[in-house]
Amino acid sequence: MRKLDSLPSPLADAAVESVETERAATEFSVEALTHVLDGGAAATAERRAAWRAFAADPVLNDGLERFTMPLKEERALSTAKLFRLADMLSAARAEAGEGEAGEAELVRLRRNLMRALEVFDPSVAIRAFVQHGLWIGTLKNQGTPEQQAKWLPGAEDYRIIGCFAMTELAHSSFLRGAETRAELDVDTDEFVISSPSLTATKWWIGQAGQIATHAIVFANTFLPNSAAGIQLFVVPLRDAATGKPLPGITIGDIGPKFGRHGNDNGFISFDAVRVPRFNMLARWASVESDGSFIPPPNPALAYGSTILERVSSVGSAADYASQALTIAIRFGVARRQGSGHVGSSPSAPEPQIMDYQSHICGLIPHLATCYAVFCTTARVEAGYNAMVADLQAGNTLGFLAPLADMHATSCGLKTVCTWWASDALEACRRSMGGTDITRTRQTARYLVKIYSQVHGIGHSGSRRVPPGDSVAYLLDASLPRFDSLGALVAEAHSLDALLVGIQQVAVAKIGAAATRLHSAMIVDGMSKGEAWNACLMDLVDAVTAHCTAYMMESFTAFVAAREAEGVDDALIQVLTTLARLFALRYASEHTTWFIEANMPAKSSDAISSLRRAVESVASSLRPSVIGLTDAFDYPDELLRAPLGVKSGDVYREYYRAASTNALNEPSGVAPYWRTLVSPRLLQSKL
Ligand SMILES: Cc1cc2nc3c(=O)[nH]c(=O)nc-3n(C[C@H](O)[C@H](O)[C@H](O)COP(=O)(O)OP(=O)(O)OC[C@H]3O[C@@H](n4cnc5c(N)ncnc54)[C@H](O)[C@@H]3O)c2cc1C
């Protein structure tokens, strides 16, 4: 094959030069900022050492291509990496020695290696998190010293592989609804763990699919004379030598996912599995041999083990978004595209895409949020680590006092930060091409042209374009019709009124963009390209407003045409309600656009009544949702979605799909168990 990368390529050279030039021109010390983010120069040095060790390790940094790797192979590979990580941590533990300082060093090493894994192989990162965060973390927070002595050493060496079995097929966030039962048998001093139904099956459980030997099982607990609510039990799952499920355990892999293919999320069902009473994690709540229950000093303690997962999610949000932003921004600086020469003459190179206003406003605010999330992570991690340190030092009060606040804050932060991260990832993805904001340029040019013709702004000499059907409203002399948001909301029962309101917004947005564009050229003396870029966000808004007006007009006309054809009244009514909801949601999400379009909210009542209108119209459609989606008429054979099956038999279909997927070997044992897992489990203590 011809070696194309040795051909002279001025554009490739220019890409390098752009990045280098901008790096050299940075006006602050990047190194100092890295130290600030890491929490000091020493922390940076420590992290870099861990990342170097990671990069130099042939098992962890295998150089293999994930996207073309068969799933079964990836599972085996991620298991090997997990064990390699364990070896690195064991070696570090031996070196660090006993005591608080050694433990803190180990925690930092684990965090640094986990961050490297989040960049390099998120599947292994999540497996390691299940082992260290969920399994070991829960044992430490919820187990008595005797329980910790029994399971922790094996867990830390990976002679025991744990999983965290909270979620069930039919329940998770509403944990009290869990169907898994633990019933005390006072005669044998055992708990009997049962999954009484299909929907009680533990589901999504990381590491359960193929390798976990033990689970921490959340179960509704029943004592001879009382119910003890949700308690946590250590339940052995697989035989270490053979990998076979233990008696009473039905276990398997839930199958392929859209990401983290190396992680074996699985299902577990218990058929009257007996475990000693000792196996109920009893640091806070316990059960005596006669069946009497000693409740926890604070009910929030039950949530202790899930806080770490939420705190880690905040950090992961920053880690994943910062990777995406690094890639998108470097590419944005390196790549040049377009004929609109930003701030330069026509002979100058094409603009860097990072200089487009849509890139500046699309990516840089996410960069700001990313720094906010890094700072937030530092705060919540420090708070959580301090609580746990108190707990481990025997200062129960130090753990309990901030628990409720930490629980509440971490719940919200996990949600808000991960929502943001997925938005940021999407913005980065779009910024790198394929979704083509440039296409909106054609629409914007047309809209500005027509508006300018109608209103006599800009250069009168340019060629006139006859206004087409889609922009007829730009010539409508009756606009603007509404003089306040309240006036529009008062007529929100009428599709025509909503359409006019939306068109009024489109006229205003197009007008604002066109006026600003002309002013940038005529008053500020910008070139066409410069002016276009300076107004790009306004132009994209104008296109959005116009397209929404077009959609609303189409919807309204469609309903009117069906009505004229004599279509059933009930259908006309439901279509009208959908059209109203489409319009109201747009208005509610773009209230400021309506205000800018001469529809001021004279009081906050208008804004809240718009929101209430969205809620009430959406709720009015609630009884029709099955009918409205059935009308799309997708047969199950085409949809192929167990969770969206027409009959509603979602749990059975999902279970059937999961249990028959190719990852579940007929033997019930992962193909790499004998060579990889059992030697690890059966090794003598490291
Ligand atoms: C990759 C991955 C790994 C996982 N690993 C594990 C694991 O190792 N161990 C484990 O136990 N679990 C695991 N889970 C499961 C995870 O904990 C649950 O998915 C999560 O707790 C949400 O529960 P659910 O899926 O049952 O959704 P539900 O609680 O049923 O919620 C479904 C949707 O309903 C809506 N909803 C539900 N309740 C309300 C409400 N009160 N108010 C408003 N809206 C509501 C929300 O839109 C929500 O998104 C994993 C999940 C994933 C995706």
UniProtKB/TrEMBL annotation:
Alphabetic keyword roster: FAD, Fatty acid metabolism, Flavoprotein, Lipid metabolism, Oxidoreductase, Peroxisome
GO cellular component: peroxisome
Record-annotated Acyl-CoA oxidase C-alpha1 domain positions: 303-435
Keyword Oxidoreductase: yes
Cofactor: FAD
Any one Gene Ontology BP term: lipid homeostasis
Main location: other
Ranges where the Acyl-CoA oxidase/dehydrogenase middle domain occurs: 163-273
List of residues binding FAD: T167, G206
Domain Acyl-coenzyme A oxidase N-terminal: residue ranges: 29-161
Keyword Flavoprotein part of the UniProt annotation: yes
Places the protein is found: Peroxisome
GO terms assigned for molecular function: acyl-CoA oxidase activity; FAD binding; fatty acid binding
Chain ranges of the Acyl-CoA oxidase C-terminal domain: 496-680
InterPro entries membership: ACOX_C_alpha1, Acyl-CoA_ox_N, Acyl-CoA_Oxase/DH_mid-dom, Acyl-CoA_Oxase/DH_mid-dom_sf, Acyl-CoA_oxidase, Acyl-CoA_oxidase_C, AcylCo_DH-like_C, AcylCoA_DH/ox_N_sf
Pfam families xrefs: ACOX (PF01756), ACOX_C_alpha1 (PF22924), Acyl-CoA_dh_M (PF02770), Acyl-CoA_ox_N (PF14749)
Family of the protein in this entry: Belongs to the acyl-CoA oxidase family.
Name of this chain's protein: Acyl-coenzyme A oxidase
Organism for this UniProt entry: Thecamonas trahens ATCC 50062
